[in-house]
């Protein structure tokens, strides 16, 4: 976009303290960000943990925004939202109150010490690709292709069926 606005995808996840409510709270905050325009959010997806299995199932979603923020400014803004909601990271891939990840920043690729775009595991996570395909089906994932093509290539599955959603 030549007017400075960049379309971005943000992954949201929670498995503690009313996860659906945590996702809704984060979305409400994202909708009110300065220098950012809200595009929309996917339906909620329920998934088993990717990391340690002795934790509750996750609730996930993907929202799409347009922003004037740089990738690092956006990262710091997302980290502030996580902190304001009370996020404490207990262990790697462990339980969390809220997790906000930059999945895509336009079609840019970025490798910085604190941020890699596109998100390094984006193409292996159905709980990210399914909602991303729903909300932004023509998104291009640098190095992977169109999101709908990535969806067809998924081999690992974490998303739960409706009958399995009871724990989330």
Describe this entry's structure for a reader.
The chain is built from 4 helices and 9 strands. The protein has 168 residues and is α+β, with helices and mostly antiparallel strands. The chain has one domain: 7,8-Dihydro-6-hydroxymethylpterin-pyrophosphokinase HPPK (Alpha-Beta Plaits), CATH 3.30.70. The strands form 3 sheets. Strands 1, 2, 3, 4 and 5 form a 5-stranded antiparallel β-sheet that branches. The protein has a two-stranded antiparallel ribbon with strand order 6-7. Helix 3 packs antiparallel against helix 4 (147-153). It is globular. The model has no long low-confidence stretch (mean pLDDT 89).
Short description:
This protein has 168 residues and is α+β, with helices and mostly antiparallel strands. 26% of the residues lie in helices and 27% in strands.
List the defining traits of the structure above:
alpha+beta, 168 residues, Alpha-Beta Plaits, 26% helix, single chain
- Mean of residue pLDDT? 89
The tally of strands reads: 9
Shape: globular
Summarize the amount of helix as a percent range.
25-40%
Sheet with the most strands, sense and barrel status: 5 strands, antiparallel
> What would you call the structural class?
alpha+beta
Uncertain regions spanning at least 5 consecutive residues: none
